[in-house]
# Entry
Amino acid sequence: MFSPRTGCIAIAGVMAAIFLTVASALAQQSSMPAPSPDPQIAAALKEISAVQIQRNIDQLAGFYTRQTLSSDIPPVGGRGINAAAEWIQGEFQKYSSQCGDCLEVRTDQFLQPPAPRIPQATTITNVYAVLRGTDPANAGRIYVVTGHYDSRNSDPNDISNPAPGANDDASGTAVSLECARVLSKHRFPATIIFLTVAGEEQGLYGSAHFAKVAKAVGWDIEAVLNNDIVGGDSTSGDAQRNPHIVRVFSEGTSSTASAEELQRIRSLGGESDGPSRQLARYLAEVATQYLSAADFHAMLVFRHDRYLRGGDHASFNEQGFAAVRLTEYHENYNHQHQNVRTENGIEYGDLAKFVDYDYTANVARLNAATLASLASAPAPPADVRLLTKQLQNDSTLEWKASPGGLATGYEVLWRDTTAPDWQHAKNVGNVTRVTLAVSKDNVIFAVRALDAKGHRSLAIVPQPER
Ligand SMILES: [Zn+2]
# Structure
């Protein structure tokens, strides 16, 4: 007999199942089989600890405020952004002392002149640790993980009221710290930088300074992973919440593409193949490789950021670096940029009790696996070209060998022009030229370098050569 009550429950159950299926399908799953995991990287991921992440987020949320303008307040009584910066520096130094001083702990400090949301000249301090690559031929390649440790409440310039900023963005800061703690126990041929920046909520000032200096001194930053709001807000009863998915936002074409480059991109359909988009696809593949068993997935969003929002990846994009943003699947705006208070029974404020530490730990694992994979892999092949000298139905690609001596072979990737992610991969051996019986008019190609252990470089889309 039909019972309305159980019927409703049954329907609700079916709806929930449909929602979960749709949400899982939304997560980017490459149609190619993922490469098998590197056992050393898989072992390192097991060291990432939700308990450690909880400790770090609780500590950061306990500085009363980490508002950037509070840098004029001496760090007395453990309050203000200077106290937070000192604590982060101390954590990096502690990890370094546990790995034979393997980390170079540094600050990038500058006086920001008055500007929007900076009423008076304000000292801004970025704190970071460098795990220098062990191979002189590859140590110049740099991979960056970053989060912003400043916080805010309802009024962006208010330094008087508490601004715990547990999700935004102690969670991202905790990802940088936990990647540093775990990856500093390992060595990689290329260099990894664990970065925490300030000034984000006032207008990306800290990351803008760091990225400009990096560009000016010629650092070869090949990828930046910006973690901002990765706490997986755990508000009970929020039906749209999904603890299995992190969103990865990326620009489709480079912010620094010239008018001539944009013209070529338009004519060849390259709108979804800039360096940041390739980095996003790399993350999705790493998620499938290392985290599918944990039922954790990357959902690629082909968009620079969410509506009305921005983040530190933009500072790196503007200097021509590949950079993406990781953010929880479903945000709760009552718990961001809000004074801590209760109104009409609703709790507002970015409190640590709303953070899902297991979720942030999975985000940290995805970051660590991506950094370790990239820093272990050969450099990408250089000067990749698609020969278009005559009308032919097959396709010839040429490139210069991956610099640095780590590559033992190359893989050609391709996909339909309408497909979001790579659909085919062909190992072509240790060559720098190949002809495939696939029409270049119908697909998008890329080439990446491989080593003997299966580490893969970022993919490089060829330029046409006539
Ligand atoms: Zn933020």
The first strand starts at residue 103 and ends at 112. Residues 148, 168-169, 200, 228-229 surround zinc ion (CB under 6 Å). Residues 282 and 342 are 42 Å apart (CA to CA). The chain is about 30% helix and 25% strand.
